[in-house]
Amino acid sequence: MKHIIVVGNGMVGYKFCEKFVQKSEFKNFKITVFGEEPRPAYDRVHLSEFFENQDAKALEMAPAEWYADNNIDLITGERVSDISRQDKTIKTAKDREFSYDYLVLATGSSPFVPPIKGVEKEGVFVYRTIEDLEGMLAYAAKLKAEKPNAKAAVLGGGLLGLEAGKAVMDMGLEPHIVEFASKLMPRQLDLRSSQVLQLKLESIGLNIHLSKATNQILGNGSVVGLEFGEDDVLDVDMLIISAGIRPRDELGKNSGLEVGVRGGIVVNDKMQTSDEHIYAIGEIALYNQMIYGLVAPGYDMAGVAVEQIIGSTEVVMPADIDMSTKLKLIGVDVASFGEPFMPASKGHSIIFENKTQHLYKRINVSHDGKKLLGGILVGDASTYNMLHQIYLNGMAIPEDPSQLILPASDGASSFGDVTDLPDEAQVCSCESVTKGQICSAIENGEATDVAGVVSCTKAGTGCGGCKPMVADLTNATLKALGIEVKEGVCEHFELSRQDLYKIIQVKGYTKFNEVLDNHGTGGHGCELCKPLIASLMASINADTANKEYAIQDSNDRFLANIQRNGTYSVVPRVPGGEITPDKLIALGEIAKKYDLYTKVTGGVRIDLFGATLKQLPLIWKDLISHGFESGHAYGKSLRTVKTCVGSTWCRYGMAESVSFGIELENRYRGIRAPHKIKGGVSGCIRECAEARGKDFGLIAVEGGWNLYLGGNGGATPRHAELFAEQIDNETVIKYLDRYLMFYMRTAKPLQRTAAWQERLEGGLDYLKEVIIDDKLGIVEDLENEMQTLVNKFECEWTQAVNNPEMMKRFNHFVNSEEEDDNLVFVPMREQKMPEPWN
Amino acid sequence: MNAIAEKYKTVKIDDVKVWFKAAHVNDFPEDGGACVKYKDLQIAVFNFKRLNSWFACQNLSPEKEEMVLSRGMIGDHKGIPMVACPLHKKTFSLETGENLNGELEPIAIYPVKIEEENVYIGFSE
């Protein structure tokens, strides 16, 4: 058995292991991996996501158990310090020795820290590892506590520097980017595209300083500023250095392997170093006198090294390496492919620029106009995948190549179809997955949907840029095989929720059976389609849940939340959380009268538990007589609009958050939606109402409200996204009417706004176009529909207790006045609870 | 299985000794159910209007032993008439009592007949 030692457990080192274990020859090998960092390899490409969730596990390439399960020894937190090539052994920093048959160096790179005076000061960071980020977070938290408007600068305006700029924004510091060159992303962008990107980034709050050579870092102990020239100083409280990378080639140098003048271990096309038993892959390998700082070529190198070691010596690295890349920088699409900057001698360029919309598109075309040689996209890279494929495969381009980047006047695509690609076209360059592999996975039955294709081909698991294309290909292939791509809600309907919405609206259906008989697949409905259609008819016809109660969901059927022993809980509406002492007393007295367990809910309302079916209408009669109404805690509808006390009482408040919260809660109460909806209104940026964790949130700022949309707590927490700034009450209501109605029309069943918004093609920008710019010409309809729902609101509990026919359902037995004799309560902290489940 | 669940045993139509007159047909919602008390038993009775059929089963959900099945939604799963428990949407065949989306114990099923607009449930004792 041959022993392979892999030095470095980064993305490329991990990929080497992953590719190796898939080989049948693996049984003849033993792999030991050394990682200097304390944790197993993680996805450094998406490092900035750590600032959003601070979940290091989510970034892991594979959990530690994966290595063990595959018989790989993973030794983390231990650096390899020496190679002895004669004995074929390595030594670690803990002075342990291991021998190898093959050594694979995947040590990657380290951030380059320029020798500027003062780099050792406190508050200066590099941006590379999770530990770096944790250090930055801790320092930023300390800064913000001392100084509310602290600033941080990033030294370097390249790709990583801009990512770090996003990190600074996410940490809530004022972001500054300082770049030595006269443009941003100098390696990927030409001057004009760089200027467009700069305008866009400035518009979202990044301060950009170009052509600045930093002389020294100022400060007594900790950083307070950067000095560029004599009178040219930028005050900052924190500095992140992102001035390029240097290969971690010290092991190679010390053991006498051939290294490049500016670093990197020299390799041939087999990924072999000057010692045939030692391979180098990833950012440490100097191939064709180049270091490739992208993940895709690193993965290819890992694959080549694997093949070479198992003896498939014909597999080598190609001479031309595709450096095309597409990414989202701070929400801005940036892509470049092929030859982004091309001298006029090789062809001509076609450029489309729109500075007001922050768009720039450039393609470079051969002199004969037949071949696409490369290009740059800023602001909108939706056509990148197709352009990239045309370039890679040398596909024919339109006679007028400008059609490839100009907005199509007739809406027709200039590209043709994904299915036109040749089978060998590489769709996922991170994982080297071709179109042919994706299609055959479906054709031979291995996968039947996008998720299946991703899991069996690994396409889309790297940078994720190809996902839309993988989805298109999957759907097109399924269609070609005659397999229908189903979006149906259950076995009784092949239609999606959105389709059903339209049908019910147009046909004016008011009964479940009408919809089922006319548009179902036969059968009699189920627990999935019945409540869905009940909810759609309620949204469209402004019905309450009292209508056709047998198709309502468990809770809607009895207008209360069923609890684990079959009793119910009761939550009256307390708009904005404002309640008079008299009402509070009434709640207490009613709870006492019916012996209900009482608790303040997570949504700051009061919940009364343990009501039997028979008690529900009695309790509600009492509540209604004290001026309460249904709180719809049981419905897929608006729950609460949580508020802070705002300028009514608070010395920091900038607006009357309670008054506005009450207005909004009363406006949207009772409206049935795909899922529950929560709101929040905060009177200032201290955000005591936690509005950004809600489906819609408002924060009072100078000059109006900032409106945030699509937030969520729950299992997948997500901050709401900033949608509009400094708008007045009227505009808030206008946008919210449109937003909620658009969500109600188009979401999937039981999809919260957060998930819906995240999957909305075109994202937040598209949402703004629909809701603010009225791109679809529907806002008037949306507003009218919402206004109808608002006008027709009726408290469904008041409706129920005043109607003897409706009251009939609130009996445990149809033939007896008795209560359920199976209920057992036990005492707990001076109240009661149901007997525990076994 | 504890004592309460053991009280419920499927009754075949041939074994019916008592036809218990439960309530008027109009006391049950169309394509929905309600609960009937017979001695110390709780029976869920469903008016499956779309099939022009009536079904009865124990009201006790075998999952957590709560008296809730009569409040569940009914419908069909691949043609089999079923009820979905309102607690966790476990579904049970109304013909055989079998749990259609899990491994729970089957529920007990009882015969139903309609005479002069009244609903009768069949018991063996």
UniProtKB/TrEMBL annotation, chain A:
GO terms for biological process: energy derivation by oxidation of organic compounds; nitrate assimilation. Residues 563-623 form the Nitrite/Sulfite reductase ferredoxin-like domain. It comes from the Bacteria. Residues 324-388 form the NADH-rubredoxin oxidoreductase C-terminal domain. Belongs to the nitrite and sulfite reductase 4Fe-4S domain family. It comes from Algibacter pectinivorans. The lineage of its organism: Bacteria, Pseudomonadati, Bacteroidota, Flavobacteriia, Flavobacteriales. This is Nitrite reductase (NADH) large subunit. Binds 1 siroheme per subunit. Binds 1 [4Fe-4S] cluster per subunit. Pathway: Nitrogen metabolism; nitrate reduction (assimilation). InterPro entries: BFD-like_2Fe2S-bd_dom (IPR007419), BFD-like_2Fe2S-bd_dom_sf (IPR041854), FAD/NAD-bd_sf (IPR036188), FAD/NAD-binding_dom (IPR023753), FAD/NAD-linked_Rdtase_dimer_sf (IPR016156), NasD-like (IPR052034), NiRdtase/SiRdtase_haem-b_fer (IPR005117), Nit/Sulf_reduc_fer-like_dom_sf (IPR036136). Its cofactor is siroheme; [2Fe-2S] cluster; FAD; [4Fe-4S] cluster. [4Fe-4S] cluster binds at residues 644, 650, 684, 688. GO terms for molecular function: 2 iron, 2 sulfur cluster binding; 4 iron, 4 sulfur cluster binding; flavin adenine dinucleotide binding; heme binding; metal ion binding; NADP binding; nitrite reductase activity. Siroheme binds at residue 688. Residues 635-771 form the Nitrite/sulphite reductase 4Fe-4S domain. Gene3D superfamilies: 3.30.390.30, BFD-like [2Fe-2S]-binding domain, FAD/NAD(P)-binding domain, Sulfite Reductase Hemoprotein, domain 1. The keyword Hydrolase does not apply. Residues 427-473 form the BFD-like [2Fe-2S]-binding domain. The keyword Repeat does not apply. PROSITE patterns: NIR_SIR.
From TrEMBL, chain B:
PANTHER family: NITRITE REDUCTASE (NADH) LARGE SUBUNIT. It comes from the Bacteria. CDD domains: Rieske_NirD. Residues 20-121 form the Rieske domain. One of its GO terms (molecular function) is 2 iron, 2 sulfur cluster binding. This is Nitrite reductase (NADH) small subunit. Keywords: 2Fe-2S, Heme, Iron, Iron-sulfur, Metal-binding, Nitrate assimilation, Oxidoreductase. GO terms for biological process: nitrate assimilation.
